[in-house]
Amino acid sequence: MVEFLGIYVYPTLWTVFYIACIVGPLLGSVAYLTLAERKVIGWMQYRKGPNVVGPFGLLQPMADGLKLLLKETIIPSGANRIMFVAAPMVTFVLSLIAWAVIPFDSGLVLADINVGILYLFAISSLGVYGIIMAGWSSNSKYAFLGALRSAAQMVSYEVSMGFVIITVLLYVGSLNLSAIVEAQSGGFWNWHFFGLLFPMFVVFFISTLAETNRAPFDLPEAEAELVSGYNVEYSSMTFAMFFLGEYANMILMCGMTSLLFLGGWMSPFDFVPFTWVPGPIWFAVKIAFCLFVFLWIRATFPRYRYDQLMRLGWKVFLPLSLLWVVLIAGYVVYGGKAVGA
Amino acid sequence: MTEMPIILPAIPEIFLAICGMGLMMVGVFASKERASSLVSILSILVLIVTIFLVVMMNKGEALAFNGLFVTDHFAVYMKLLVLIGSTVALIMSDGFVKRENMDRFEFPILIVFACVGMMMMVSANDLISLYIGLELQSLSLYVLAAMQRDNLRSTEAGLKYFVLGALSSGLLLYGCSMIYGFAGTTSFTTLAAELGGHDGHGSVGVVVGIVFLCAGLAFKISAVPFHMWAPDVYEGAPTPVTAFFAVAPKVAAIALFLRVLMEPFGGLVDEWRQVIIAISIASMLLGAFAAIAQTNIKRLMAYSSIGHVGYALVGIAAGTEAGVRGVLLYMTIYLVMTVGTFACILCMRRNGQMVENIDDLSGLSKTHPKIALALMIFMFSLAGVPPLAGFFGKLYVFLAAIEAELFTLAIIGVLSSVVGSFYYLRIIKIMYFDDERDAFDMPVGRSLSAIMTITSVATVLFFIILTPVLDGASLAAASLFSG
Amino acid sequence: MIIQGLAFYLFAFVAVAAGVMVISSRNPVHSVLFLILAFFNAAGLFVLMGAEFLAMILVIVYVGAVAVLFLFVVMMLDINYVEMREGVLQYLPIGALIGIVLLAELAVIGGSWVVLPLSEAASAMPTPPIDQVTNTNALGRLVYTHYIYLFQAAGLILLVAMIGAIVLTLRDREGVRRQRISDQVDRKVADTIEIVKVVPGSGV
Hints:
Chain B is an all-alpha fold. Helices cover about 75% and strands about 0% of the residues of chain B.
C-alpha cells in the first residue's frame, strides 16, 4: 500500500499541484490581459478605458467574467449540439496544455521532454480545430465563413512558422526548450534576437499575430463583414471559453517568442544586480513586452485584405524562411558551429 | 561531419533532375509567349546532354547511394533507349502542341521528370528505389495523359490511368512488403544472395510477394490481364503523349521487370516462370485478336503494343542470358517502329483537325505516297515480315524460348503473330487499294518527316546495324547475370 | 509498468474503435473527427514506444495539416450520403468474398512462415541504441545520409504532384486586376496630389 502511494498517488498529486500553479496565474493573466488591452488602446487613442469598476477599473475583468458566467447558454436549434459544445472546450484545453513544456526557469518545467518545441508547434497547429468545429456546428453562414478564413489563414502561416522553428533548432542543435534557452545565456547579445536569426524573429512574430487571429490579421472575426465570425452564435460560458482560450494563446505565443528569440528566463546582463532578479520574473517581463507589442499593433494598423494576407504568407514569408533554413544550415555546417555530429 | 555518399554513378539522373527544376524557373520567368517553345527546345537539349552523360558513365557496374542505385551495361542500354524515345517523342510533339492548345511549358518539364523516374527505375537496386522511381514516372504520366484538360476524352484517360495506376501501385507495394517481411531486406543484392542459395525454393511468402510484384509491373507494361487501361488511355491522351507512352515508359517498365526477375529472384526462376508464361500467352493472343475489330488507329496501336509486350515477355520467360538479349533487341526495334508509326499518325490531319480512324487512311498511296510508303514499312515490320527489323526482334526472342525448351510458348507466339499480321496488312490494303479521300494538311513539318525518314530507313536496313546492336544487347544482358 | 500497460491498451482500444467509427459513422464530418482521434492515439502509441519525434510529426503533419484540409473539403461538399450508402449493401457480397479470399491467403502464408536464415542479419538496422542518441538524431542520420537518395526522390515526386495539380487546375482568368505592390510603393506624392489654393467663394 505504501509502495502504491509512493509510486502512483504522490507523484500524481504533485503533478496536479504543479498544474494548478501554472493554470491559476495563467488564467489571472488572461483576465488582466483583457483589461490591459482596453486600457492600452484607450491611452493610445486619448481615452481613459474602463475606470468605473474598482480602482482604475481593476475589478472590470471580474465583473465581465461574472456576467458571462451568469448568462444563459444558448444553443441554436439547427446546431450540431455535441460539436457546438465541444468546440470551445477544445480551444480552451489546447491553450492550457501547451504550457506543460514551457520552462519558467532552469529546471522549472512541468515536463522537460526532448521534443518540446515540436510539442508546442503541434499544439498550436491544433488550435484551428476549435475554430473550424465552432464555425461548422453553428450552422450559420457568418460563422462558417469566419471559420474557413481562419483555418486557411492559420494553416498558411503555420508553414512559415515551422520553418522558423527549424532555423532555431538547427542553430541550437536541440529540440528541447530548456536547451534552446540555455544556448542564449550570457547577456542579451547572445539572444537569437540579435544576429543571424533576426529576420526569422520578425517572420515569427508576425506569424504569431496571424496564428492567434490578431489585428491586422483578424479577418476571421472581422466585425464589419462577419459580425465577429466563428463565435457569432456563442454566448455565456461557451463564449467565455473561446475568449479565454484566445487570450491564453496570445500569452503562449509571446512565451514561445521569448523562449526562441529573447532568451527565455535569462537576464539581459550577466552580472549583479540583474542576476538577482529570478528567472520567472524576466520571463514574465519579456512576455509582457511582447503582449504590449500585440496591443500596440492592434491600435496602429488597419486590417489586411484577405488576398494580401495570403500573399504575405505564401510569397514572402515562406520563401524567406526557406532561404534562411538553407543559410543557417550552411552556417551550422561550415561556420564552426557544428553540433552533435 | 558525416561522409558524403557516393553519387558519381548517378550523375545523369542528378543532372536531369536539376535541369528539370531549372527549366521550371525558365518557364516561369520567361515571357508568356516564348516560355513554351523555349522550354521545349531547352528540354530537348538537356535530354541530349543526358544521353551523352549516360554514355560517358558507361564503365561497368557501379553502386551509388549505399547500394540503393546501380548502374551497369544493362542500365546504360535501357536508359539510352528511354532517353532517345523521350527525346524523339518531344521533338514530334512540337507542332501538335502549338495547334491543339497544349502550349504550356509544363509539358516538356513533365516529360523530363518522367525520364528521371524511368532512369531511376532502370537503375533501381532496392525495392524502395524501384517503387519511388516508378511513382515519379507514373505521376508524371497521369498528368501528361490529362494534359488537354478541356478535352473530355483526355481528362477521362488521365483519370482512368490514375485510378488503375494507383491500384497497380498498391499491388506492387503489397508484393514488396511481403518480400520484405519474409526475406528481411529490400536490397536486390542481399535478396539475390539469400534466395540464390536456396536451389530455387523460396518460402511461400516470397513467392506470393513476387506474384504481386509481377502483377503490379504487368499493369505498367499493359500485359493481359492488366491491360484494360491501355486502349482507353492511348485513345484519349493527346497523340504525342500516346507516342511517348507507347515508347519510353514501356521500355523502362520492361527493364524493371528484367532486373527484378533476373537479379534478386533469378534463383526462383522455376517459381515465376509459369506466371510470366501465362501473362505472355494471354497478351499475345489478346493483342492479335482484339486488334482486328478496331477502327481507331490509336486504339489499334494500343492492342498492338499489348501484343508486342507479350512477345517481349516470351524472352523474359526464357530466363536466360539469350532471352534477356532477345528482349533488349526486341525493345530497341519496337522503339524504332513505334516512333515511326506515331510520326505517321501525327500527320493525319484534315482541315486543322486530327483524324484518327483507320478509314481516314483510305487511298493514302495516291494522295501522300511517301507517308503511305513509310507506314507500309512500319506495318510490315510490326507484323514481323523479313527482312525488316520486326522480324529480327521476334526471331531472337523465339530462339531464346526454344533454347529454354519452352516450345508451346514459342509456337503460340508464332501463331499469334500470324493472326496479328492480318490487321497490319489490312491497313496496308486500305492505304493502297481503297478509294482515295481528301488529302491531309500539308506540310507535315520538317521534324516529323525527318523522323519518318530515319526510322523507316532504319527499319528497312536494320540487318546492316544488327551486329553492333546485338553486341550491345549481349553486353547488357551479360551484366545482368554477372552479379 | 502498470501505467504503460494501461496506457497501451487505452490508446490501442481507442485507436481501433475510432477507426471503426470512421467508416461506420453516418456524418462524414464526424468520420474525419474520428480519424483525427485515431491519429492522436497512434501518436500516443508512438510515445509509448519512445519514438516521441514521430509522434509529434504525426500530430503536426496529419492532424495539423492533412486532416484540416480533409475537414475543409468534407464540410463544403454537398452530397446526399444516405443515397451514396445505398450501393454498399449491393457490393457487400463481392467485397466480403474478396476479403475472405485475402484472409485465407494470409492464413496460408502465416502458417508456412519461414524467415530466411540470412534475414536476421539483414534486418539489423544501423541505428545506434536508443540510450545513446535521441531518436530525432537517429532518424535524421538514416534519412539524410543512408537514404538520402530516396528522400530526395520522394521530394521530386511531391514536386511533380504539385506541378500536376497546378497544370490541371490553374486557369488564368481574363480581366482580373492584380495588386502590383511595386507600383504602389513607387507612387510619389507629387504624381497624385495637387494642392490648389482656392480663394473663398470662387470655386475650383
